[in-house]
Predict the 3D structure of the following.
Amino acid sequence: GDSVTQMEGPVTLSEEAFLTINCTYTATGYPSLFWYVQYPGEGLQLLLKATKADDKGSNKGFEATYRKETTSFHLEKGSVQVSDSAVYFCALSGGTGNQFYFGTGTSLTVIP
Amino acid sequence: SQTIHQWPATLVQPVGSPLSLECTVEGTSNPNLYWYRQAAGRGLQLLFYSVGIGQISSEVPQNLSASRPQDRQFILSSKKLLLSDSGFYLCAWNPDRASSYEQYFGPGTRLTVT
C-alpha cells in the first residue's frame, strides 16, 4: 500500500544553518505530495505541495521537489530561523481517493 | 473563506467517562472530514473519515465512534474512555473535488484521561 518514510529526528540546528529533512514515498498511481508544519500545541498547517513529477513546492523559504525517479520529496531551507522550530510532516494523497498518508514527523529545533 | 473549528480545546476526563468532541467546517459544502489522533511525541493516526452525511469509515477498531449528523459537522465519541485514549485529536477536511487533495486541519483538542 501507499506509505511515507520520513527522516527521524530530532534535528537541532543553529540559526542560519541549511536544513534538509528527507522524505521518500511508496505509492501506486500518481500521488500528490505535501509538507505540513505543526507548531507546539497547534494543528497542522499546510507548508507546501507538489502535484506532479518535477513540480517544486515552495513557501516561506522552504522548498521541496517531487522526484519520481527517486520517489522523494525532501524539504530544504537555506537559512533556518528560531521561528522555524516545529514538527514537520511529509504526506501523500493517493491517486485512488482522498486517503492521506503521513510520515511520523521530524522535530526541528533551531537555536540562536 | 473556509474555516474549521474544534471544541473543546482541552479536556480532562476520568477513565470510564463518556466523550464527545465536535468539529465544524464553515464556508464549504460536502467536505470530506477526518479525525486523527496524535499521541505524545508520535505521528498521526487516522481514526475515521467521512465522505458524506451518515457515511463513516473506521480505520482502527477501538472504543471510539464517529458520527456526521450534518454536512459540516463531525463528532467523535466514546461511551467509556480508557487511559490510552489520551492524546491530541485533530479534525481535518478537504474539498470533495478531484483537483484538490490537500487537507486542512483544525486547532485540535488536547484530551487527558486520568
User: Anything to note?
Assistant: Chain B touches chain A at residues 6, 32, 34, 42-44, 46, 49, 51, 90, 92, 94, 101-108, 110 (CB under 8 Å). Residues 64 and 73 of chain B are 17 Å apart (CA to CA). The mean pLDDT of chain B is 91.
